[in-house]
Design goal:
Layout: H1 16-22, H2 25-28, H3 32-48, H4 54-73, H5 85-97, H6 110-146, E1 151-156, E2 159-165, H7 166-191, E3 193-194, H8 210-216, E4 221-222, H9 226-231, H10 234-261, E5 268-269, H11 288-311, H12 326-349, E6 351-352, H13 354-362, H14 368-379, H15 383-400, H16 409-415, H17 429-435, H18 444-457
Parallel strand pairs: 3-4
Antiparallel strand pairs: 1-2, 5-6
The chain binds arginine.
């Protein structure tokens, strides 16, 4: 067992350590569906081209169906001795149908086989991720619509900056996740070429039809260079890069949820079923799901580094190093899947404390910029001077323990005698938000318009 596929050349079985370091079936069994799809396409092509007999092709296809049944039914014997999914399937095929099984590997190598299987898997993973990103975006849109007019403080440096709406804040993430989906889409377009038929590295002397297998497997075309086809994994790297950027976005939103949920902020809460308690501190309600979304980014970024490092410096064409491509990719997509699902669940039910957010939106002299803008607009002050006057007003309000809007007119007029009652109209957070009508600004009308744009696109 085990060395039978190349036993002709060998007189000894692999050492235990040879098998231990070489075996990958525990990981690459996840490629079984792609492996069967690739073998079916290859088999039909071989028959159509007259490279194998129709009867042999039928026997092979029948055997592959049995194998599919065994794998889905959980009875397939995955054996370490057969190293990887490709040899496990082939060995089982031989047990099931005998001699014709040996004809399936004509004009094929595990090198183009694994490159094909893995591309198919990553392509599916990108499709799944795009669908999940869209789900998350739609969920964010619903919540943004609900809160398009609800105030919250906007921050820079996590210091109160200017009032925004909660809807506007959520819509920022709709944009980010939209670009993330775009990156997966772009990666998918580039990866959708068929390596099958590159064989070991140089192509095949048999009259294979690579366009036929490409079409059967949903690829746009065959890859144009056989060495490239078996030796690059840039499609996986590009997808991991997209995953890493998306995970970064998820971790930022996760971090915000964590911050909003601290009692010191008190901006939002999650229902019991999406939080955890403490085994010792009875008062606790912890945002573990958000924290784990934040943390999954570590694994995903790690996967990108792992695979870029494996690939760097590899000479053409295939090297066994490339077998190490699958664990990071599987781990990254598993983590991203969980993170996206958990984030969508949290966004769907997060309960903003709109009163507390609105109060905070008006605190911290958040409308100071509006005062400066008023001085520019109404008194024609240069902005720098208006900034200075406003700074003095903030200083005075701080001394008196008042908000900017509570500062008596006489106090303001002491800074510039031309200031009138009208100024108070711009000093509320509502007015501040409502005034920001520039495209992409936080005015509720603008936020609703962007929500409508996205709805028509999703
Ligand atoms: N298990 C191998 C991998 O995942 C399959 C390709 C093996 N090719 C070879 N020439 N040894 O990369």
């Amino acid at each position: 067992q085990g060395q039978s596929l190349w036993g002709g050349r060998f007189s000894a079985k692999p050492a235990d350590i040879m098998q231990a370091i070489n075996v990958s079936i525990g990981v690459d069994k996840r490629l079984w569906a792609q492996d069967l799809a690739g073998s079916r396409a290859h088999c039909r092509m071989l028959a159509q081209q007259g490279i194998i007999q129709q009867a042999d092709a039928e026997a092979i296809l029948g055997g592959l169906d049995v194998i599919e049944g065994e794998i889905s039914g959980g009875t397939f014997p995955f054996r370490d001795a057969y190293e990887d999914i490709h040899m496990n399937v082939e060995a089982r095929l031989s047990e099931l149908i005998g001699e014709p099984s040996g004809r399936l590997h004509t004009a094929r190598s595990r090198n183009d086989q694994v490159a094909t299987d893995f591309r198919l898997w990553v392509r599916d993973a990108c499709d799944r991720t795009m669908a999940q990103l869209k789900d998350l975006q739609r969920t964010l849109l619903d919540r943004a619509e609900q809160h398009a007019g609800d105030l919250m403080p906007g921050f820079t440096h996590l210091q109160t900056a200017q009032p925004v709406t909660f809807g506007h804040h959520l819509m920022a993430y709709v944009e980010m996740f939209g670009r993330d989906a775009g990156r997966f889409h772009d990666a998918r377009v580039r990866m959708n070429e068929n390596p099958l038929g590159a064989a070991a590295l140089a192509g095949s002397p048999f009259p294979i039809d690579r366009h036929m297998t490409a079409q059967a497997l949903g690829f746009d075309r065959p890859m144009a260079n056989s060495l490239d086809a078996v030796s690059d994994r840039d499609f996986a790297l590009e997808s991991l890069a997209a995953a890493s950027i998306a995970a970064g976005h998820l971790s930022r939103l996760a971090e915000e949820i964590v911050v909003w949920m601290t009692p010191m902020f008190g901006f939002a809460s999650l229902p019991d079923d999406l939080t955890t308690g403490s085994s010792i501190m009875p008062q606790k309600r912890n945002p573990d799901a958000a924290e784990l979304v934040r943390a999954k980014t570590g694994r995903i970024n790690g996967a990108l580094i792992a695979l870029t490092t494996v690939m760097k410096g590899l000479p053409l064409a295939y090297s066994k190093d490339m077998q190490e491509d699958k664990p990071p990719v599987f781990e990254a997509f598993d983590a991203l899947d969980l993170a996206l699902t958990a984030m969508t669940a949290m966004v769907a039910v997060i309960r903003p404390n709109t009163e507390k957010m609105a109060a905070a939106a008006g605190a911290g002299f958040s409308t100071a910029t509006d005062l400066a803008d008023w001085l520019v607009r109404e008194l024609n002050l240069p902005f720098r001077q208006a900034h200075h006057v406003t700074g003095a007003a903030v200083k005075r309000a701080e001394v008196l323990g008042l908000g900017l809007g509570e500062l008596p007119l006489t106090e303001l007029q002491a800074l510039d005698g031309r200031i009138t009652e009208g100024v108070y109209e711009v000093l509320t957070p509502e007015a501040s938000c409502a005034s920001r009508q520039s495209f992409g600004g936080t005015a509720p009308e603008q936020v609703r318009a962007r929500i409508a744009d996205w709805r028509s696109r999703l």
